[in-house]
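Revision sheet: structure tokens.
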Amino acid sequence: MLHTIKTKDHGPLGDPMAAAVQTCVHCGFCLAACPTYQELGQEMDSPRGRIVLMKQVLEGTLPAAAAQPHIDRCLGCLACEPACPSGVPYRDLISPYRAAVQQTQPRTFAEKLRRWLAAQTIPYPGRFRLALAGAKLGRLFGGLVPSALRPMLALAPKTVPPAANLPAIAPARGERRGRVALLAGCAQQVLEPDINVATIDVLTRNGVEVVIPPAQGCCGGLAWHTGDLAAAQAQARRNLDAFPADVDAILTNAAGCGSAMHEYHLILKGTPDEARAEAFRHRVVDISVYLARLGLREKPAGWKQPVAVAYHDACHLSNAQGVRAQPRDLLRGIPGVEVREVANGHLCCGSAGTYNLDQPEIAASLGRQKAAAVTATQATVVATGNIGCLTQLKTQLEQSGSPVRVRHTLQVLRDAYESEASSR
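Predicted:
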């Protein structure tokens, strides 16, 4: 007996989910691109297998609980999308599906607690900073910490850099060539605030005025990717209201944030804000893309000695946004920099938002493989464009004893400018 997805039963997101399911022809090209299929070797832990499972749940022929372990193990890295010859929009299925079945998913108390703690801390820089301070105490009394929360302690950095005070407006240096608004991010402001400092420095020295809206908040990606649609919608609306209209672009320097903001039309589908979200997402641009379009007015002198830089493709930059060439071009434009490719660069590093909290074993295995591939390049620096990747790479490279430094692409570019200034 044939069944169809009753789209009206799943609200405004029913149509996108049904379209994604119907586009899949089950050819299997996605298998080689999927990190969890490579890791686990099970059909149900591949995009093709998960599409079948989600289809059955949405049709009402399979209990959501039966599919849950396999859906939970999906990184949401979207490596399947560029590999798919049929153009399945997997992003239109995985997060909407999680939102559709969230209330029916059986979760242990420990899982609920861990997810609640993540949702109440990571999107809020002040709370997140306090939580990381508390993690120091947690490590002292590790035996008393519930096992479900130990992945949080393991991932919490032992030292947290001081906060950066970002101006409401950073004026362009010299003749103004552009005006942009910058998403400051949430976890990034705590874990690596220098990324925003470097971004503002590079933009202003190239004639771009930077606005940092004080009312902005989390992009909503964490909530969206875990199925908390109400929280994702609230965070999306906050940013729709916060960002000004009189700028050339809304810039992101974190791949996950940029990807989430590009999906605001989906997050707010069927609401009065859908049209506003559709217009907004087309104004969101990754910093590397904006600089590639604008061109660097001030060329960095670079370093006297050659520097080998490995480039790691953040999944939500390369797969979700199709941005691959621009970061590499920025790095190659620095005199003395040799860009080296990482083997199996299409495979996720295992970070993926809160994935390394929810699936620590798989995340750690993928992270170790990525760290080994980075080390094999014999580069001295690895550059990437996402705070989650930066954190994962730092952790895994340090654990492996590798001396490779982890930097954001804009930090490498800023450092090249500062190297020029210090040599004068």
